[in-house]
Amino acid sequence: MERPERPRLAWGLTGSGHYLRECLDLANELPDVDLFLSRAGEEVLHMYGHPLTGLREGFRIFRDNTASAAPVGLFYHGHYHTVVIAPATSNTVAKCVAGISDTLPSNIFAQAGKCRIPSIVFACDTAPQMETESPSDWVTVYPRPIDLENTRRLTGFHQVVVVETFDALRAALRTRLAAVEREFGAAAPARQRSGLAT
To answer: pTM to 2 decimals?
Structure first.
């Protein structure tokens, strides 16, 4: 398999609605983004009114429908410069910490580590009490101590940036993409990138 002239960004979607619309809007501002969906992520997209038919107009989409997570083979051949998992459920964060890669998002996180590709993780459970959006309204949730501990542990992983707010996600992406441009040259302006302008 040939290496592409310019690698892309791999964006993992898990089964969380926490800032889901904002994350999709942000991904849509960027060029060359592929979406990697867990089965729960695919369900949540439908629950929150984001059908795959509409998303396919702006993204290449990989679904979690192969036992061997076949799409991760692209990571070995330089197809991706960055992995983003946003939003990341406490389940996904726990799997990433434990080295379990049995969903497509947790698998691309693992492959990023093995291929020395930087990752950004927007963890959902970051405080003892939080407000989050359900399909119908905003609700209060109380992350467990183990959820908060796993988020803290993930911050110690090499080449992994863990962010706790949507604004921090935007800032981390801005920093990472500036580094990518220095390494690979300016990206083709496939989409508006006003949201990341400095």
So the answer is: 0.90
